[in-house]
Each structure stands twice: as C-alpha cells, then as structure tokens.
Specification:
This protein is an alpha/beta fold and 449 residues long. The chain contains eleven helices and 21 strands. It has two domains: 246 residues, Rossmann fold; 100 residues, 2-Layer Sandwich (GMP Synthetase, Chain A, domain 3). Helix content is 30%, strand content 23%. The chain has a nine-stranded mixed β-sheet with strand order 4-3-5-6-7-8-9-14-13, with helices on both faces. Strands 10-11-12-15 form a four-stranded antiparallel β-sheet, covered by helices on one side. Strands 20-19-18-21 form a four-stranded mixed β-sheet. β3, α6 and β4 form a beta-alpha-beta unit. It starts with 20 loop residues before the first helix and ends with a strand. The mean pLDDT is 91. Bound molecules: zinc ion.
C-alpha cells in the first residue's frame, strides 16, 4: 500500500490486466472489419429512425446502401453541437423515451444544454469502455475507488462509477466538494484510487500537505483524471507529490461521455481509442478533408453502436493526432495524443493566434513555476493586452525583489519566443490562484467591442 507504480520502463506489461483482450489486442484487419459491419448497421439505423439525419443525407443524395467501405463515412454529413441544440431536447433520439434508462446533459454555459439519453445497451457499452480505461491504469477488483466528481447531469460522475462497478472495484461515492472530508475518507477507508479533475486532485494534494497528511504513506496509488484536459506538467507534479500514478481519459457528452479513449502506462499522454465502438477521423479543421495518419487535425467521431442518440461524424473541435502503431502494453487499438487546445479555444490577440496549451507547455518547462496559471486578456488601452499570472513552485519561492524581478524577465522572454507576442507576466506566491472544483479556468477574456 502507498507504493507508487514503478516507472513505465520497469513495468512488466504482461502482468497488467486487459479488460477485453480479444478486442483490445486483436489485429488491425479484424478491428476494421468490426468497424465496417457496425458502421453499415449504424447508418441504416440512423437513417431509418432520425428524421434530422434522413433529411441531411437526402440533401447530399447519400443512401445507407452507399456505405460499403470505412472511407465511405466521408459521404455522410458532419454533426456539431448546434444540431443537438436545434433539436433540444429529444429531437435526435432514435428510440422512444420508454427505452431510455438514463439521461445526462452538458452544463450549457451558453444557450441550451446538450441532452443525451442512453438505452440499456448504451449503458453496457459505456461501462465497458470505462472498465477498459480503468484497467489500463492498473485498477482491479480489489481497489477502493473514491469519486470526487459531482454526481448529477454531468456524464463524468455516473459514467466512471458504473465502469468501476463493472470490474468489481468498490465505489466510495463521496462526490464533489469538501476537500478535508475527502482526505479524511482516503485515510479512514484506505482508498486506493481517486477519480477527480486534475486541478481538484492538485487541490486535495495541497490541502493535505497543509494539514500535514503524509501522501507517501497513504493508501492512495492511482489517480483517474478527467473532466478537463490534463497538462503533462500538472500530472507529473501530482504524481510526485501524492506518490501515485495518474492517467487521463477522453470523451465528450455528445458521443457518450468519458470512455472514448484512455491512457495506458506504456505511452504516457497517449490514449487508446475504443475503436470497436467509435470510428475516428482526423480532418483539417478548415476544409473537413482527412489529414494523413500521424498528422495533427480535428478529431471527428462516429459512435458505432449508439442506440439512444446515434451521432454521425461529430466534430469535436479537439486537435490531436492518431497512430495505429502497436503499443508496448499489448493493445493494438489506435492511440490518440492528449488533445491540444480545442480548435475553438484559440485566442486571437493582436492578430496573433494564441493557444492556452502553448502557455501551459512553457510553464511546464520551467521547474521553478507551479502548473497553476491564468491568462487575462483586456483591451482597456485600445490595444489587446495579455497578462499571464503564474504561481511560483512552493519549493522555489523567494521574497528577494531582485531575484523575482530577474526571474520575471526570464519567464517573459521564454513566453514571448513561443507566443510571438510579449505578455505581461505576474509571478504569484504559491497558492494564490483560486482553485476550482470543476474545470480550472485558465482564460479570462475581458475584451469589449
Ligand atoms: Zn498501450
């Protein structure tokens, strides 16, 4: 108990469990055959049952019988968030509501929420996808798994919960909030796995340190992160300070929720896609045309056996690249890189494209900085101004003015060389930025006009 997993170069992958080896480790040819059979069935199902898709396909003069190869998916219309908003709440549902056993919705920060419904079969697929990614991280039936996501309409809480039950782990449904209580529960119940957003895991870590909790001696071994993209710097920091191994997973409410892909321990920051349930494409975000394998583009997903809401070619606005090279963990399912900034998160500041992930990468490369930052953009003076507030690592804090002044100059220069514009950098004392329970808010755009 309390011993972190060995570093990946010392892991014996043959001893780690694989939830569904006959699929996860099968040949590429067989995966493609499974995908094609399911795609043909799914397109027929969708065309027959969802008038919104039938109309779009009729406009494009595409019939379900035109889908004969996997590449034929390109004949189908794209779907984006607006389709789910236009048809709110149930317009894209393919079954009667009697067959829906659970509903979830996105938070809907702008406009109406995205509503999704799951049939019994959809719930089975979902929990299996979660079971797979939990086992990729080393979670087994003997684990005690503490949930720090909120339960509710958000897909993260219940989605992960059902998947852990599927592998026989013990769920501790603590839910969101009350950090000290989380730490107490880890201690009292011998929790071995924590499910949280990475920013909240960091917060639990820091509160524990302040309370004098000895993370090295605690029972906790694994962090399953989700709900927000996890910067590699933050993950490494949490692993070192909490003495645990953390993996990330990916998914979005519109196509299922978490579980589309999960990180194995052989290639950190890459995630195996559940390809027997999702057909992936990587396209040029501007033209919608496919990019060659291994090149960066926008991820487009078609769930292959969704019954409640079948979605065709969903544009995720997430940038990634995908490889089908076999993986040392034994799995043959394609791996996607940790998603970069959503393509619609790109900021245009003084005419320059700026991605928050660029700022994140620079901060992660400077050991004296903590991975906590905030970008503030304003134009009070008429010109766009980017201010980057970043916390100094607790071990590297100094109150010498000269030292801090010089360090600020160094950080500014490094950011300028990457962003191609000069930000105002404010170095903050450790723990000055507000920690959020949900998604860490890294961008505060205050521009008017
Ligand atoms: Zn792998």
């Amino acid at each position: 108990m309390g011993t972190p997993m060995p570093s990946p170069d010392k892991i014996d992958f043959s001893t780690l469990p694989i939830y569904k080896p006959d699929v996860e480790c099968t040949s590429r040819e067989r995966i493609r055959a499974i995908q094609l059979a399911k795609l043909i069935d799914q397109v027929n199902y969708t065309y027959d049952r969802v008038s919104w898709y039938r109309d779009r396909m009729d406009e494009l003069h595409v019939r379900p019988s035109d889908i004969k190869t996997l590449d034929d998916v390109r004949k189908l219309p794209f779907t984006d968030k607006s389709a789910l908003r236009e048809t709110f709440p149930f317009g894209l549902f393919a079954t009667s509501l009697d067959e829906i056993v659970e509903m979830h919705a996105s938070s809907g920060t702008t406009g109406k929420p995205i509503v999704v419904g799951y049939t019994k079969e959809d719930m089975d697929v979902w929990s299996e996808c979660i079971a797979r990614l939990a086992q990729m991280a080393g979670v087994t039936a003997g684990d005690r798994v503490q949930m720090a996501f909120g339960y509710g309409m958000f897909t993260g809480g219940f989605g992960l919960h059902y998947g852990i039950l599927r592998i026989g782990g013990m769920m501790i449904p603590a839910g969101a909030g009350n950090t000290e209580r989380h730490i107490q529960m880890i201690n009292d119940y011998g929790t071995t796995v924590l499910i949280a957003t990475p920013s909240y895991a960091m917060h639990i870590c820091e509160v524990g340190e302040k309370l004098g909790f000895d993370w090295a001696a605690s029972s906790l071994q694994i962090g399953l992160f989700g709900g927000e993209p996890c910067p590699p710097g933050l993950k490494a920091e949490i692993e070192a300070r909490m003495h645990i191994t953390c993996t990330d997973n990916y998914g979005l409410t519109e196509v299922m929720g978490p579980g589309v892909s999960g990180e194995c321990l052989a290639h950190r920051d890459q995630q195996h896609i559940a390809e027997d349930h999702f057909l992936w494409e990587v396209v040029d975000p501007d033209t919608g045309e496919p990019v060659p394998e291994g090149e960066m583009g926008e991820l487009v997903l078609t769930p292959l056996d969704k019954r409640g809401i079948p979605v065709l070619r969903y544009r995720t606005h997430d940038l990634t690249r995908v490889t089908t090279e076999p993986c040392e963990c034994g799995r043959t399912l394609a791996r996607m890189d940790k998603v970069r900034s959503r393509s619609d998160d790109m900021l245009i500041i003084r005419g320059t494209n700026v991605f928050p992930s660029q700022v994140e990468d620079v901060i992660a490369s400077i050991p004296r900085l903590a991975p906590q930052y905030r970008m503030i953009i304003d134009n009070e003076s008429g010109l766009d101004r980017l201010t980057i507030e970043v916390e100094i690592h607790p071990d590297a804090f100094s109150d010498s003015f000269e030292d801090m002044n010089q360090f600020t100059q160094e950080v500014t220069a490094k950011l300028q060389s990457v962003l191609l514009l000069r930000p105002v950098v404010r170095l903050l004392e450790p723990n000055s930025l507000e920690r959020t329970l949900g998604k860490a808010k890294h961008v505060d755009d205050r521009r008017r006009g």
